[in-house]
Prior knowledge:
5-stranded mixed beta barrel; alpha/beta; 6-stranded parallel sheet; 9 helices; 17 strands
Amino acid sequence: MGDEPPRAGDLVLCRVTEIGQHRFLGQVDGKRNRLFVGDTIVVAYGARYAPDQFEAEVPGDLGPCDLVAGGGIAGRVVSSHARMKSPTQVEPLGLVTDERGEVINLARLARPVVPALAPRPRTIAVLGTSMNAGKTTVAAALIRGLGLAGHRVGAAKVTGTGAPGDPTLMSDAGASRVIDFTDLGLPSTYQQPMPQVIRILRGAITDLTSHQADAIVLEVADGLLQRETAALIRTPEFRASVDSIVFAAGESVSAVAGVRLLREEGLPVVALSGVLTSSPLAMAEAVAEVCIPVYKAAAMSDPSVACQLLAGTVTGGVAVAEGSGLAEDGSQLSDHGGLPQERSRLTDYSGPLTDYSGPLTAETVA
């Protein structure tokens, strides 16, 4: 066993030898413990895909490696963003085994999925342009709005790298049950074969349905060009599982490109949101090119807006802001206001986009 390479999901006891980028280790309850040189920690081997941080692979041996994610993922960094410090380094002391000497892998600790007897509830997915586009914030706002509307909301993050922060935020926003790929036995979905990723998607939806969710919010990590995400959204299983999509973007060009890509795939994208909403000009640029609403995350925590997005019944061509409810002709659009689609030139517009104060952050979702 000592000569066998570790597998993704194998638990390993490590000693911290050098503190680098990750100075804390996340716990299942959302707490983060400060790391010190000499600490012994149990983490899981896994790959990582994070354009703003590290790309990492599962090592081929039990030699020194890196802490590649604060959720507790050990790997070897193969590339990193220029802003990143060197990774925190760890020395594996040995794989964690059970009383029979068999290596414990996350797959053995996966939640059992109870078959669902009820039909799948209506499901909304949040996709994005990239890491840090605002996807989890958008998902939390939708969970909040649907919960306030009286729905029993189930939430799932179906791809990404294991970390406690996102599921914790979903739970704090009001989800009755939260599940992600780590609960179903994977430390991350990067470099996993597509049948495994589809298994996670099916398992998460089945689990939430069997626990009586009547609305589901899914988050798909990273961007539309990431390998597993790009493959997943083109599968019949994804198409059959999702009723509407909110797309989180960082700026206007990527927003327009992402919406067009989703439409080319025949997917039901119904709204834009994300970091894009920090900029009134970026929102105006996007709404001039796409016939779907652009919502600030805070607006989606409104029950009526969240329910319209879930149902896919939002009207196209408005950029939604807080604090104004009048269309150009003075008629009432909604409690959130809007920019008519036909105003395609930025210089023609003098409406309520200046009311924006940026996207809802994790700290402000209550």
